[in-house]
Design goal:
Layout lengths: L16 H64 L4 H30 L5 H21 L2
Helix pairs in contact: 1-2
Amino acid sequence: MPERPSGTPGATADTPVAELVQRATEQITRLVRDELTMARAEMTAKGKRAGVGAGLLGGGAMLGLFAGATAVATIVLTLAAIMPDAVAALIVTVILAIAAAIAARRGKKQVSAAMPATPTATRDSVRADAETIRGAASRRQP
């Protein structure tokens, strides 16, 4: 059997178990470190993209708000052509207040349905895993 040059990875029949365990530990450590580095780089890139996207989303929301305000003004001016200005503004204000109340009520229902904000499915999964491990450990004990 040809000998491997020193420093090359690989096991031979003469390699002590302690050395094999040490190599495995080093390789696992390097693998975990490399995976964490890769995950960090990926999350940094995604974070930058998300930041740009959030800025654009905020700008779009602001422009949408301006468009909505202009539409409300247009409705008020249109109604003011057939009735007193104050009455036209009051009608539009009441309609907007009713729409806001409906949206707020629906939003509150959605938030209440999402509470409590604890990861219950994950919690249950972790508990089940712990029970499985306890059961396996108790079966192995003499």
